[in-house]
Amino acid sequence: MENEVKLTKLASCAGCGAKVGAGTLAKMLEGFKTHEDSRLIVGYDKSDDASVYVIDSETALISTTDFFPPIVDDPYLFGQIAAANALSDVYAMGGEPKLALNVFCLPEKMDKETVHKILKGGYYKAYEAGAIITGGHTINGAEPIYGLAVSGFVHPDKVLINSNAKPGDVLILTKKLGVGILTTAKKADLVSDEVMELVYKQMATLNKAARDIMVKYPVNSCTDVTGFSLMGHSYEMSQGSNCTIHIEANRVPFFEEAYEMAQMGFIPAGAYRNREYVGEHINIASEVSLAMTDILFDPQTSGGLLISIPQEYSKALLEELKAVIPEAAIIGYVTDLEDKNLIVN
Amino acid sequence: MGKMIDARGLSCPEPVIMIRKAMASNDSEYEMIVDNNASKENVTRYATHQGYTVDVTEKDNEYYLSIKK
Fold first, then answer.
1. pLDDT at position A190, please?
2. pTM confidence score
3. Could you identify which of A4, A173, A224, B52 might form a hypothetical disulfide with A92, taking C-beta atoms 3.0 to 4.6 angstroms apart as the criterion?
4. Which domains does chain B have, with CATH numbers?
């Protein structure tokens, strides 16, 4: 075992915490020339999870990519988490992934066994998702990076964008928060293996089951919660939908061990970037503890779906979700735009 | 002046691990320098959680933390 590579030691930042801040990204994309195409119904101007291009009246193509440095030391698990995370963008659009390409960067000295296990993890998850990895591109570089470029399909009328939440909607989250905090605290050996196993298992879990149930209901809007945190992604949803999102902090599911680790300052830098990104557009009630707000801003890797659905259908959807995803919970609701985009109570 | 811990050039969670180790001595005062906002916030959270108060002075993009009990 001692010869095994500590994968996370090769990475300067972990998982979706490596994501470039949303504000930084938006500035870099300003002013580029792009073709107008009416078939492109979700493009890069929308800050959505993936782009969507209508092929015919029955079919739209979803295209997306996601990759990051190791968030775990086990290469097989890293491959699974990276793939589950990349595939998730298709699920968040309401679609089904079909084709995938490996995006892989590995240090020249990395042993073959580790490389093989990372890829094995990716193939395993793609298979579980019903998608086919048809190739990819692999380069040498200082830090390992793995992920997928994924294509999927969805009916053009059933596309779930992240900017269509409606006043009267209820918000459902399908995975626990705290993943970024716990993987940070793990580096100080402060989290038990048992807890980390649960965290790893959650990250490697596809959002397929949540998607398959969600599409049976008249959902208005959906996104997956990743590097920008619950707050960052909720802010994007509220801004795009021109409404206010209310989060009830005591209903938000999170790994309870993350709370003490947040109090102890084991918080990834990405959480502070997320606070900056949301900036003045949030109002947090004074009763909500600092540690809880740290959890709300914690960057998630392969996080759950955030689903916005009319209140009258929310109970039935939640019940069906909870049968297979016990941590699924109603965490807030949507109103007309108030003076802040986000209100946390 | 308490014990001085220089955590410049380090990112999360290293500075917190350093102050945690230093606090094993249970002194009433520590001084710490960090060079990014996340480290400043995280060290402040840790020290506060351990019952210390923290005063932060920013100078040339570096944060000087005076940690006292």
1. 95
2. 0.94
3. A224
4. 3-68 (3.30.110.40)
